[in-house]
């Protein structure tokens, strides 16, 4: 007969608890915060299970209670009980989309159809005050740990990490994730989509993998590591192994760039039938089937975080055609904003008397002032973006449906959060066909972008939309992603359903919440305690507040239990406390990443104050009327900043992308390779920008000649490559897909040994200048020579060089080229090298700042701050 016993957690550990409980029914938990252990079956038998007291993970091994004699016939076996979650613990599906503001989904008044979210809202609850951090990695770190983003090392994205505890991009061992907690308590755990919480310098196949999803408590990972990914051909991983499933579904698309004067470069052919948005839904469904068919009783936890709607916006043509036929955006972004605002008021998701903040004519040109060509381009941009959102919601719906197909839906808690921050404006007012260009401070004009009109959303564009649309998609708020002091950057919305646990169908909740609240909520509904010790390490306290109380209709209008929350991102900051919001006035647009940064972001600010009970969307600044409140909240912010590792404040943006950080190659100025190697991420690849360097390849050409890639870094949208084309040596710089500069030998290499060398002599002071708000040392000219067997075969002066970063989702490859090539006109990947690589040497001569240089720049900084 199956028996259930309950036992309080005892200081001496799980083994004693189980021993004392035996087979009898122990006293139920009553009025105590102590954890309760539940056991089933006969202890010591193979079918026995137990829950955990939760204070220590993994739990101490229970004492062997069998009998051991000289032989097995006289001995009695005893099995440790299998760990399971508490009885009736729900499955958890935690969904979060990317770069999506409040006005994106139709569920909250948007015009983009999101029927999957709509259906959940009808069956569960809508939440209007779920806050993010205003940026990708930080929100995600907070979401999976239940701690503030600085507390877990993610004050900024991992690509901007600096050597301070709040900014080093390392989730410390004292901050176990919700994946680790649930896994050790018997859940099957998985992560699908974006992993932006692995340090850039630990993203290679050299590991370590402790900061990958599988190292942070997730049994299974299928997705990409980094901020964004080409959805047609991502740098994709299953667990920690690179995979290339998209190679099995080649597209026949071709882009004709032969006429440089053409208004639009035509794209012909058929796109791939593979896209990551669908592929990850397929993989999640397959994983669910594997777990369910193996053990139908094991609860599932899925962290489902697709790349949509982060740039590049890569939907399928089918979805672009659907959205285009709806003509949602023909009257421009201001009218769109007004229409969404009216929808929101009719639906009751914003206060009925709310006023819409004015359009920012000073930073975003009004629609009526645009040329017809610009209007045509911008409509194309936003239709592709909207198609991406709708496509993603459809695929999310397939995953939700599979819970129903497996009979698990009734006891599944689904958290569907719209966005990890507000809508991104990182395309700038004009948008961009290549987001990599933005991160290098380049904003291509409309006529240049129009050439990519047919390519928008395809594999030939790394596209982003005009910031005018982004402002509209944050309605009723203003500003964007990155702006931590404005609700447009941090006020998300979400839908939560749990048929077994939430009965208030279609309810609306407006309590203040933050992404750190997801973890304590999940722990409360599962009945699992936050551990005090994990792997022998004392854990920091969970900093979020459970919002499970809102699931009860009786608490629909209850005061928020999350009463204080700081916000900070790249020198812009805010503090929420009991309905008040102190904010710093925005002093930088998201597309302005390379201007001198505020040297004193704590104090050198214009402060704004809002009473959110009367100014729901930050429309009425009352700082002048309440100077004492401003003073009080400034002091409170500083205390929060000290408590949660926010200091030192740093307002720099682009400078931090190129800042030195640990890596496999840190401090090395000579790297030698002797065999084929692919897939090294940019964080562990040789960083050649803003430096002099020499690349020397020693190869042996076989009889009959050779071709193929010798070495490359980056891809179609920015990078370099040294290769043999029809036997001739070539070196090429892809300059943000705006230009391709080529050096080449005149003749094919004869059979035998050869030395190919590319040398670049840089004429700037390098990335060190950026630490002093001086960007004049980057992207400077370079004198170059290309040699074959010691003879110069080509030389050029590069008047400009790439200043900040190559294409981040493409790797450093030797002997082959993965994903996309640096020059479509010359070859298609993988383009393997058919010569023998004997040796590849890369020497880097980084500029060194003199004391005089540093003194001069410090003086300029002080003058600027005055």
Automatic annotation (TrEMBL):
All copies of domain Sulfatase N-terminal, residue ranges: 90-528
Protein family per UniProt: Belongs to the sulfatase family.
Gene Ontology MF term list: hydrolase activity; metal ion binding
Lineage, opening ranks: Bacteria, Pseudomonadati, Pseudomonadota, Alphaproteobacteria, Hyphomicrobiales
Signal peptide: 1-26
Keywords: Calcium, Hydrolase, Metal-binding, Signal
Species of provenance: Flavimaribacter sediminis
Protein name: Arylsulfatase
Pfam families per record: Sulfatase
């Amino acid at each position: 007969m199956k028996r259930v016993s309950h036992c309080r957690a005892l200081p001496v550990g799980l083994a004693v608890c189980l021993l004392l409980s035996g087979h009898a029914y122990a006293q139920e938990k009553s009025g105590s915060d102590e954890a309760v252990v539940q056991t089933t079956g006969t202890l010591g038998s193979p079918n026995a299970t137990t829950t955990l007291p939760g204070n220590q993970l993994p739990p101490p091994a229970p004492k062997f209670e069998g009998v051991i004699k000289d032989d097995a016939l006289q001995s009695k076996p005893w099995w440790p009980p299998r760990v399971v979650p508490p009885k009736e613990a729900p499955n958890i599906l935690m969904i979060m989309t990317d770069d999506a503001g409040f006005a994106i989904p139709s569920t909250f008044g948007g015009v983009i159809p999101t029927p999957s979210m709509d259906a959940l809202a009808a069956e569960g609850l809508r939440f209007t005050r779920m806050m993010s951090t205003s940026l990708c990695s930080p929100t995600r770190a907070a979401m999976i740990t239940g701690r503030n983003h600085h507390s877990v090392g993610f004050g900024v994205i991992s690509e901007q990490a600096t050597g301070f505890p709040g900014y080093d991009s390392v989730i410390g061992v004292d901050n176990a994730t919700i994946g680790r907690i649930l896994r050790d308590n018997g859940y099957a755990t998985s992560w699908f989509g974006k992993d932006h919480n692995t340090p850039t310098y630990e993203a290679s196949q050299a590991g370590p993998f402790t900061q990958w999803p599988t190292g942070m408590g997730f049994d299974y990972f299928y997705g990409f590591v980094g901020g964004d990914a080409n959805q047609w051909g991502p740098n994709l991983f299953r667990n920690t192994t690179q995979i290339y499933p998209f190679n099995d579904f080649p597209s026949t698309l071709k882009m004709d760039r032969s006429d440089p004067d053409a208004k639009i470069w035509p794209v012909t052919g058929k796109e791939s039938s593979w896209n990551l948005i669908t592929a990850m839904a397929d993989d999640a469904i397959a994983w669910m089937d594997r777990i369910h068919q193996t053990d139908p009783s094991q609860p599932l936890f899925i962290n489902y975080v697709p790349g949509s709607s982060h740039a590049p916006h890569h939907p399928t043509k089918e979805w672009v055609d659907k959205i285009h036929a709806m003509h949602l955006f023909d009257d421009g972004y201001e009218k769109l904003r007004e229409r969404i605002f009216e929808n929101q008021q009719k639906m009751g998701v914003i206060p009925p008397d709310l006023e819409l903040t004015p359009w920012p004519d000073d930073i975003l040109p009004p629609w009526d002032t645009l040329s017809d060509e610009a209007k045509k381009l911008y409509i194309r941009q936003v239709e592709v973006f909207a198609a991406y959102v709708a496509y993603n919601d459809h695929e999310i719906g397939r995953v939700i449906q599979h819970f129903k197909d497996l009979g698990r839906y009734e006891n599944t808690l689904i958290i569907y959060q719209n966005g990890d921050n507000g809508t991104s404006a990182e395309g700038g007012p004009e948008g961009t066909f290549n987001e990599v260009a933005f991160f290098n401070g380049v904003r291509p004009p409309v006529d240049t972008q129009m050439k990519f009109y047919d390519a928008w959303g395809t594999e030939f564009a790394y596209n982003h939309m005009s910031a005018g649309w982004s402002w509209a998609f944050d309605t009723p708020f203003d500003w964007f992603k990155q702006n931590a002091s404005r609700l447009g950057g941090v006020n998300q919305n979400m839908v939560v359903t749990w048929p077994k646990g939430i009965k208030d169908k279609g309810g609306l909740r407006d309590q203040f919440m933050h992404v750190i609240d997801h973890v304590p909520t999940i722990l409360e509904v599962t009945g699992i305690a936050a551990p005090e010790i994990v792997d022998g390490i004392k854990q920091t306290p969970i900093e979020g507040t459970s919002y499970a109380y809102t699931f009860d209709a009786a608490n629909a209008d209850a005061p928020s239990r999350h009463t204080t929350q700081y916000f900070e991102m790249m020198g812009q900051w805010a503090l929420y406390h009991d309905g008040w919001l102190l904010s710093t006035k925005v002093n930088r647009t998201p597309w302005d990443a390379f201007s001198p940064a505020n040297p004193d972001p704590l104090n050198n600010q214009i402060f704004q104050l809002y009473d959110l009970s009367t100014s729901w969307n930050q429309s009425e600044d009352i700082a002048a009327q309440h100077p004492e409140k401003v003073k009080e909240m400034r002091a409170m912010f500083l205390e929060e900043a000290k408590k949660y590792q926010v200091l030192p404040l740093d307002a720099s943006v682009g400078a931090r992308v190129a800042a030195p950080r640990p890596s496999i190659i840190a401090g090395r100025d000579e790297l030698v390779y002797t065999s084929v190697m692919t897939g090294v991420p940019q964080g562990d690849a040789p960083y050649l920008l803003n430096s002099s360097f020499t690349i020397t390849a020693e190869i042996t050409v076989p009889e009959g000649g050779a071709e193929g890639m010798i070495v490359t870094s980056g891809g179609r949208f920015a990078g370099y490559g040294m290769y043999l084309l029809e036997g001739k040596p070539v070196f090429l710089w892809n300059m943000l897909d705006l230009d391709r500069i080529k050096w080449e030998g005149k003749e094919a290499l004869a059979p035998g040994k050869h030395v190919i060398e590319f040398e670049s002599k840089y004429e700037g002071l390098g990335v060190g200048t950026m630490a002093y708000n001086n960007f004049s040392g980057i992207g400077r000219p370079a004198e170059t020579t290309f040699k074959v067997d010691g003879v110069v075969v080509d030389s050029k002066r590069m008047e400009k060089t790439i200043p900040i970063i190559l294409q981040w989702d493409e790797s450093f490859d030797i002997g082959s080229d993965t994903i996309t090539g640096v020059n479509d006109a010359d070859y298609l990947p993988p383009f393997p090298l058919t010569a023998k690589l004997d040796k590849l040497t890369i020497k880097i001569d980084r500029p060194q700042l003199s004391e005089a240089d540093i003194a001069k720049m410090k003086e300029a900084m002080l003058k600027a701050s005055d």
